[in-house]
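[Structure tokenization] protein backbone as discrete codes
[Encoding] learned vocabulary of local backbone shapes
[Protein] chain in single-letter code, fold in tokens
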Amino acid sequence: MIVTEDNVQDILKEAVSEESEQQSNANIPEGFDGTYTAIMTYDWHFPDGTSTSADAYVKNSEKNVSDVYFDLFRSDNEEDILYKSPIIPVGAELKNFKLDQDLDPGVYDCVAEYHLVDENQVTFDTIRVAVVVTVEQ
């Protein structure tokens, strides 16, 4: 689909409607109070575009009541997912992972979009956090 000035509002409405429908089908976990505690590093360094980071770290805090996964994308291109995490259960952590894409050397302003999911892995809420990704060589 090509986005133009004439159809951008319709496409945005459709996207919001689809996300709302998905979220309305979710079962919000008992005890969810509308907050999420993100325990993570915010500056992730990769020796090159295909290697594992030694300092990328995300933990789903024991204070949370739902599993979570996140999508990482550049802040200027939300269509191109750089990394899609596995489901991270409450209390579990994810570290030392590789990106799903081979990035050229450089510094990238990124966004980690957390998807809080119910027991059926249906997203009931999302949270966005800024992350800086540095690819060394």
